[in-house]
Amino acid sequence: MENVDKYLDMAQGFIVEYGLKIIGAIVIWIIGSWIIKKINNGVSKVMTKKNYDESLQKFLLNLIGWILKILLFLAILSQLGVETTSFAAILAAAGLAIGMALQGSLGNFAGGVLIMIFKPIKIGDLIEAQGELGVVKEIEIFTTKIVSPTNKEIIIPNGALSNGNITNYSTEGKLRVDLTIGVSYDADIKQTKDVLMKVLTDNPQVLKDPAPSVNVSELADSSVNFAVRPYATVADYWDVYFGTIEKCKLALDAAGIEIPYPHSVEIHKDA
């Protein structure tokens, strides 16, 4: 019984000493989380009202959220009686060690900041970088997410992205579609050019400025090749690409112009 009373006294002392601190820490966490949410919503509304770039909005909200969460974490530790000055020193030392181990992550963070400052890309842009092609979905602190033409999400580290070559197909707003159409050597060049050009000018998705062009590009082994060059908006690129191929074939067939196909010659050697 004496041992039971002893343990009960210890438990009571623990509850008296730490119970209020734990309850206070929970209250701080609940109120702090609510305040962080309100601050993020307020900052988001201000940036939207000021017409901040969508990529910059998400990046800054992400960064502000992490800073506020760290401050909330320190406040909770202080409520629990942990010496924040000592903890800060430990955190700084740990941060140095972690920083050495995570140099790549710090490089990605720096890369994200550079992307936000110089804005080589933004959400919605069609880009090619690090051997990947896709539309920018989101620019985060450490990574950038793009969606490929096959609807796959690709995550690229910001460090590599900011230090590598980026081809932005959306910046100019117009893309040239490069196609090669081959016809028979018996075909009339002027007639062929007229037929192919009519396909381009009749297509409302082909831009008038810059003007489309059709030119002889090569005298190949079995065909005369024409470089067919329509221009389209980024959104219409693939419609113009595939549509032009199909319409050129139909137009050439209707005009009686032959499209040659590869021939193979089989040689039999007498025994």
Describe it for me?
There is one protein chain. The chain has 271 residues and is of the alpha+beta class. The chain has three domains: 1-118, Helix Hairpins (Orthogonal Bundle); 125-168, Roll (SH3 type barrels), CATH 2.30.30.60; 174-255, Alpha-Beta Plaits (2-Layer Sandwich), CATH 3.30.70.100. It is built from seven helices and ten strands. The chain has a five-stranded antiparallel sheet. Strands 7-9-8 form a three-stranded antiparallel sheet, with helices on one face. A hairpin with a 5-residue loop joins strand 3 and strand 4. Helix 1 (2-49) packs antiparallel against helix 2, helix 3 (84-101) crosses helix 4 (103-118) and helix 6 (189-201) crosses helix 7 (237-254). Keywords: Cell membrane, Membrane, Transmembrane, Transmembrane helix.
- E-strand count: 10
N-end to C-end Cα span: 112 Å
> What percent of residues are in strands?
15-25%
- What is the CATH topology descriptor of the largest domain? Helix Hairpins
- Sheet with most strands: 5 strands, antiparallel
User: Could you spell the SSE succession in H and E letters?
Assistant: HHHHEEEEHEEEHEEEH
- Low-confidence runs: none
Specify Rg, calculated over alpha carbons: 33 Å
Gross CATH architecture of the largest domain: Orthogonal Bundle
Give the spatial strand order of the biggest sheet: 4-3-2-1-5
CATH structural class of the largest domain: Mainly Alpha
Mean pLDDT: 83
**Number of discrete domains:** 3
In DSSP terms (H or I, runs of 4 or more residues), the helix count works out at 7
